[in-house]
Amino acid sequence: MKSSSCLNFPTEILRDIFELAAIDDRRTALSIALVSSWARQWTDPIIYHTVLLETPRALTNFLLAISHKPTRFVQTRIQNLGIFTMGPIQTIDRVISACSGVKSLACGFPLPWYARIGGCDTVRGPSRAAPPWVVVSGWVGYGACGVLCDPPSRSHYRKSAHI
């Protein structure tokens, strides 16, 4: 950190300020990420915690963004993933495969259909533990098996990260 305006503040205080601002407002988080590489390291975990992809363009841009991130970051930092676009299906497949560590996966298409047309092993494979809950076209299911259950909360998608 070499900026003269930042030299008067301890790094820990700057980090706390930037992280709190990023948590409070998504646009602020994205702006802070553009400040410098060290600021981006602090805000990226916040930005990528919950991701909502509603258009093919957002899906494609997200795949491009995560392709420049370390694999471990993508697998561990993306906790909630919502995909509400129908494709391109190959891109959906690559995103779901890359984000294999998600705790909550919400999709605007039926996962059994997705698995039937050759969806990624993350959804198809019986050996992989399914995410805790999945929203399937308005139904709530557990993994790809479609057993109905209630999610712990849907509220984290309301303030989600629109990429």
Contiguous helical run count: 9
Q: State the order of secondary-structure elements, H for helix, E for strand.
A: HHHEHHEHEHHEEEHE
Write down the overall mean pLDDT.
Answer: 74
Radius of gyration: 17 Å
Which structural class do you get from the secondary structure elements? alpha/beta
| Number of beta-strand segments | 7
| Separation, N- and C-terminal Cα atoms | 28 Å
Low-confidence stretches: 125-162
Summarize the amount of helix as a percent range: 40-55%
The major pleated sheet works out as: 7 strands, mixed
**Judging from the principal axes of the Cα atoms, what is the shape?**
elongated
* Sheet with most strands: strand arrangement: 6-5-4-3-2-1-7
- Beta-strand proportion: 5-15%
Number of domains: 2
Task: Walk me through this protein's architecture.
With 163 residues, the chain is an alpha/beta fold. It folds into two domains: 11-47, no CATH class; 50-162, no CATH class. Helix content is 47%, strand content 15%. It has nine helices and seven strands. It has helices at residues 11-24, 26-33, 37-47, 56-67, 71-77, 89-98, 111-116, 121-124, 155-158; strands at 50-53, 80-83, 104-107, 133-136, 139-142, 147-148, 161-162. Strand 5 and strand 6 (147-148) form a beta hairpin. Helix 1 (11-24) runs parallel beside helix 3 (37-47).
